[in-house]
């Protein structure tokens, strides 16, 4: 792989900054921190420019962003554990979570609640496919696996999300047609109608 020059890196930044920023904001909800994380992603891209795929860099950047977020999460966990060991009051002085600060519609709140019950791996594959609109080889690159494995992971994650949404609907006694999976159920209804 040839090493990109400064102009290539500037173009990479200009073309993909907003996509990476959206990716990060959707995962952490804090715009200021998202800008910092996004800067770290492009700093990593600069450091690892020889690893950067020239033809389709965005999925690779998504993978770097996932790694940067994981590093930050681990760092926060270590800091929280250190504060707890020291008996520091700062641990108890936290503000509301990002999702509590936002006013979501009922449908979206139900879908997000069901999504949060899934494993981190399931959440990641669903968000890459749904929010970042990655498919096929791009999804596989972002997940760091083969194309077939990515397809299987997505299929299984969708099935688990559907089950989680149904359980959420049952717990909250929400009517099925108002749940976060309206699109899925509507598509299933149409498919079943076509079979009749």
Automatic annotation (TrEMBL):
Region feature Disordered, mapped onto this chain: 163-196
Presence of keyword DNA-binding: yes
GO biological process: DNA-templated transcription initiation
Top-level taxon in the UniProt lineage: Bacteria
Cited InterPro entries: RNA_pol_sigma-70-like, RNA_pol_sigma-70_dom, RNA_pol_sigma70_r2, RNA_pol_sigma70_r4_t2, RNA_pol_sigma_r2, RNA_pol_sigma_r3/r4-like, WH-like_DNA-bd_sf
Alphabetized UniProt keyword annotations: DNA-binding, Sigma factor, Transcription, Transcription regulation
Sequence similarity: Belongs to the sigma-70 factor family. ECF subfamily.
This protein's name: Sigma-70 family RNA polymerase sigma factor
């Amino acid at each position: 792989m040839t090493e990109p020059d400064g102009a290539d890196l500037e173009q990479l930044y200009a073309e993909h900054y907003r996509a990476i920023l959206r990716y990060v904001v959707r995962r952490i909800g804090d715009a200021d921190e998202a800008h910092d994380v996004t800067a770290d992603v492009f700093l990593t891209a600069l450091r690892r420019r020889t690893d950067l795929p020239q033809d389709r860099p965005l999925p690779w950047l998504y993978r770097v962003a996932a790694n940067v977020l994981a590093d930050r999460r681990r760092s926060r966990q270590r800091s929280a554990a250190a504060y707890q060991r020291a008996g520091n009051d700062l641990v108890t002085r936290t503000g509301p979570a990002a999702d509590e600060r936002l006013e979501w519609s009922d449908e979206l709140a139900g879908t997000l609640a069901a999504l949060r019950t899934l494993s981190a791996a399931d959440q990641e594959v669903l968000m890459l496919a749904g929010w970042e609109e990655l498919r096929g080889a791009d999804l596989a690159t972002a997940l760091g696996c083969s194309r077939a494995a990515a397809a299987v992971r997505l299929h299984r994650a969708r099935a688990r999300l559907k089950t989680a949404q149904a359980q959420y609907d049952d717990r909250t006694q929400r009517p099925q047609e108002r749940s976060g999976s309206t699109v899925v159920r509507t598509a299933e209804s149409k498919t079943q109608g076509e079979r009749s």
